[in-house]
Specification:
globular, menaquinone biosynthesis, S-adenosyl-L-methionine, iron, transferase, TIM Barrel, 4-stranded mixed sheet
């Protein structure tokens, strides 16, 4: 046992990749050791920089044909809280946010069977027509899969329409956890892990970038997290081999929020396990540049601590967050830009405002 751990540590010291069994073995290391290893990698890649962007989330509808047990955001037709925004409502929100200086619109919706593809694409097209400079991040792989099944379209056709109508990059939602037995329990009607990966591969093949996520802290095992991470690493290898500019630009471990859903008796993860998961992600994902500590699921304070455990990004201002806050996260009203800057500075890191593809827009001084 001791010898195997020594061999694992030697591989890490020599910057060698770990396989699945070795990845699982990382859980035997204490938090301090994991943090040291992950932070060394983080410093080598990004120094003391902590990235964030100025963005606005828009969720056009929460009316959903699927029933995921972990989801507190979605609603059904008879639910008094169900909503669907009109075209004019969405455009009004977009115009207001862009005129106040946001750099990215992040548009993710529930799987509403009454919204036709052309209605969705019309929104994207109008936003880019009025604001060609804005970065439009929209439609998860789960939304693409639902649209394909509902309206008998191919993935390729949908992705091409997204690009034609102005979508710049894809968010990473819908990945949840790749283990299919767990997906059968928590999100049986949603896109399969195989098809989630296929959709992102097709998107990357078109020279486009996307994010990747993992929902953890529900009924999955720690070994399943390793499997999930390594499957992302494998796809990233394939995408980078094309050398056409399409790949994952960030990995986002999402902490499960336990309120107002159908998963019962789930104990909330402690900070140590959350930080360990982030650190292991940084250690294993040698080919994904950025690890995001998404403050909306982990709190601002823990996301800041995570910058010492392998993360280098805090996400963005968001302005209006509906999905995580519906499940209990304190993220409904977003976060002020100055709060990001001040918190990063007082933690002795260097705040870097970025665009959606990690081009640096402004570097702020240390305190």
């Amino acid at each position: 046992m001791v010898r195997k751990m020594q061999e694992l540590l030697l591989k890490l010291q020599n910057n060698e990749r770990l396989n699945y069994d070795e990845g699982v073995k990382l859980w035997d290391l204490d938090l301090f050791s994991l943090g040291q290893i992950a932070n060394k990698i983080r410093i080598k890649k990004h120094g003391k920089k902590v990235f964030f962007n100025v963005n606005r989330h828009i969720n056009p509808s929460n009316l959903c044909a699927d029933t995921c047990k972990f989801c507190a955001f979605s609603a059904h037709r008879k639910n008094e809280n169900a909503y669907t925004m009109s075209f004019d409502e969405i455009m009004s929100i977009a115009r207001d946010a862009i005129n106040r200086g946001i750099k990215e619109l992040h548009i993710v919706s529930a799987h509403n069977p009454f919204i036709k593809p052309n209605e969705t694409f019309k929104i994207f097209k109008q936003i880019k027509k009025e604001f060609p400079h804005i970065h439009l991040k929209a439609m998860t792989a789960a939304e693409v899969d639902f649209m394909a099944r509902k309206f008998k379209l191919s993935y390729e056709n949908i992705l091409d329409e997204m690009i034609e109508n102005g979508v710049d990059s894809m968010p990473g939602g819908g990945a949840e956890i790749f283990d299919e037995s767990t997906r059968d329990e928590i999100c049986a009607s949603k896109v399969s892990s195989e098809n989630w990966l296929k959709i992102h591969s097709l998107w990357h093949a078109r020279g486009r970038q996307s994010n990747a996520t993992m929902l953890f802290g529900h009924i999955e095992s720690k070994a399943m997290r390793i499997d999930h991470i390594l499957r992302l690493r494998a796809l990233q290898d394939e995408s980078l081999a094309r050398a056409n500019g399409g790949y994952f630009n960030a990995f986002i471990p999402l902490v499960y929020q336990r309120d107002n859903n159908y998963l019962k008796n789930i104990a909330f993860l402690g900070s140590a396990e959350i930080l360990s998961t982030i650190a292991i992600s940084r250690i294993l994902l040698d080919n994904i540049a950025h690890i995001k500590a998404y403050w909306a699921t982990s709190t601002m304070n823990l996301a800041m601590v995570a910058q010492d455990f392998g993360a280098d990004d805090m996400d963005g201002t968001i302005e209006n967050e509906s999905i995580q806050s519906a499940a209990g996260a304190n993220s409904k009203h977003g976060q002020a830009k100055n709060d990001f800057i001040e918190m990063i500075q007082t933690s002795s890191f260097l705040p870097v405002e970025r665009d959606s593809l990690y081009n640096e827009l402004k570097v702020y001084n240390l305190c």
